[in-house]
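Record 1 of the preview.
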Amino acid sequence: MRENFFENLLSVSQKITNEVPVNFNPIQNQIIRLLLVMVKVALEGAEFFAYHGFYPEEQLLGTRFFVDVKVNFNAKNALNDDRIDNTVNYEVLYSIVQTEMRHPRKLIETVVQAIINKIVSEFPFVNEVVVTIKKMNPPFNGPVNNSAVTISYLKDQN
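->
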């Protein structure tokens, strides 16, 4: 069965590149579309000095944070046009993160969710967004390199 799947995938990819209509069941079509034309755009290790933290001292002193953003979307054939509005502009991603990092909050989870909400609002065609914020040197009673929060958004495909 697995061999049939890969044979079908190869056959479909050849047909798609030749723009030949393909007729499979809806689940197969969805899997094949996702496998063949998913685009991933990412920011990794964007560094900010910010004032997020539960304790008043954290909000007063601040610390360094590193932010990773990964966005997936189905581009179909739109990237052949070489237009920035057919993709997720990572300069806009950075601006969204920068804006949210400037607003002090008690919980890193709140910051991460705000970033995801703005990305999904700015780029409604995205299928998946994963945001991680690492807080460097969190105020614990021992050495810890960083604490981290990751939240994933997956668009409802129905």
